[in-house]
Amino acid sequence: MYKEVKIIGKSIGKIFENNFKASIPDNIWYYRPPDSAQGFDIGASSKLRFSQHSPCDCMLFNGTHLFCLELKTVFGTSISFEREKDDKGVIHKYQFDSLSKFAKYKNVISGFLLDFRKSDHTYFTKIDDVLNMIKCIDKKSFNEGDLLKHSSPTLIEKKKLKVNYKYNVALMIEQVIKKGD
């Protein structure tokens, strides 16, 4: 099983989130809802830990459209997901539910930024496309091929710097809006 790599105390997922945040132009509003783990002592040797579920990793607003985004990066070729609350997966059921609620509003675009590190491709895909794809596959994970076959993701232009990536967020927003919401 793949273990999450940490670089200088940060997980690859946090590095991906930080790279994306650093790529956002000044004219686009960015907000990251709090998602802090909390806990309390329940006995001499144990601590009960739980995490407040944030509705998404971040929100972007370009003046006309609000983007509600969940960011996922995977080393392997597939991303696991929860069909039911008790399943285990990288994408949680509550994330599907939250993004689906947001997508019902006018000028709100919600979905996933999916980073497949093995192929070095990063995509944006709307929540409705992901949910439709999941209905078409009979497994608890999807790969890049499934994503391309069962949805119409937007490939995000990115540039490798010395260590980090710079994503063309303005172009992504323009392309997603042009496809229609």
UniProtKB/TrEMBL annotation:
<dbReference type="InterPro" id="IPR011335">
    <property type="entry name" value="Restrct_endonuc-II-like"/>
</dbReference>
<dbReference type="InterPro" id="IPR011856">
    <property type="entry name" value="tRNA_endonuc-like_dom_sf"/>
</dbReference>
<protein>
    <submittedName>
        <fullName>Uncharacterized protein</fullName>
    </submittedName>
</protein>
<dbReference type="GO" id="GO:0003676">
    <property type="term" value="F:nucleic acid binding"/>
</dbReference>
